[in-house]
Design a protein that fits this description.
Blueprint (H helix, E strand, L loop, with lengths): L1 E7 L4 H12 L5 E8 L5 H8 L4 E3 L8 H15 L3 E4 L8 H6 L4 E5 L14 H10 L3 E8 L9 E8 L6 H32 L1
Parallel strand pairs: 1-2, 1-4, 2-3, 4-5
Antiparallel strand pairs: 5-6, 6-7
Helix pairs in contact: 1-6, 5-6
This protein binds 5-O-phosphono-beta-D-ribofuranosylamine.
5-O-phosphono-beta-D-ribofuranosylamine binds next to helix 1 and helix 6.
């Protein structure tokens, strides 16, 4: 059984796609051990609680400096003992100690076709604003492993989405979520869990 934890910062629609996938059996051999957010007001925490999943907030506001927050965050992650960490709309730069300790065991969903519109400053709506500004006809989403860079790890899966003439950033974001993010992130977890099953035996 692959034990995952999901790190979130906002609405949690990607978390919900994972919760639904595990409940429906489209994500097999997987247990969600906990959800951690840096944002006490994240609706994603409410989604976790409704699903009976332990939900925790580790907020930078509760710590004197970045190092203390990083240490507390990593301590909580370690306490949950995950096989895989899923970043789903998580807007915090991970402590280097964490990316080293969980090398090749952290994945992220990014709302563009990496290497387009990614890296520092490209998150949430900003990604779609940049895509519309550039005038691309196709965008999409990417699931990738997390390394010490920003959106630079090995790509696991991508799915393309058409950009339409009168798209606003909000309309485009919703289409990318519905048609790409909520599809490829659960699929990626299911595939990793299947491989994990082989290691289990
Ligand atoms: C999504 O666009 C996701 O790609 C990005 O954060 C946004 C919010 O995601 N990483 P969620 O609704 O909190 O899952």
């Amino acid at each position: 059984m692959l034990k995952i934890i999901v790190c979130v910062s906002g609405g949690g629609t990607n978390l919900q796609a994972i919760i639904d996938g595990v409940e429906r059996g489209t994500i097999r051999n997987t247990q969600i051990g906990g959800v951690i957010s840096n944002n006490a007001g994240a609706y994603a925490l409410e989604r976790a609680r409704k699903a009976g999943i332990p939900a925790y907030c580790i907020s930078p506001k509760d710590y004197g400096n970045r190092q203390e927050f990083n240490d507390a965050f990593l301590k909580k992650v370690n306490s949950l003992g995950p096989d895989l960490i899923v970043l789903a709309g998580f807007l915090v730069i991970l402590p280097e100690k964490m990316t080293q300790a969980y090398k090749d065991r952290i994945i992220n969903i990014h709302p563009s076709l990496i290497p387009s519109f990614c890296g520092t400053g490209f998150y949430g709506l900003k990604v779609h604003e940049a895509a519309l500004e550039r005038g691309v006809k196709v965008t999409g989403a990417t699931v990738h492993y997390v390394d010490e860079g920003t959106d630079t790890g090995r790509i696991i899966a991508q799915k393309a989405v058409e950009v339409l003439e009168d798209d606003t950033p909000e309309i485009l974001q919703r289409r990318v979520m519905e048609q790409a993010e909520w599809v490829i992130l659960p699929e990626a977890i299911d595939r990793i869990a299947a491989e994990y099953r082989v290691l289990d035996t």
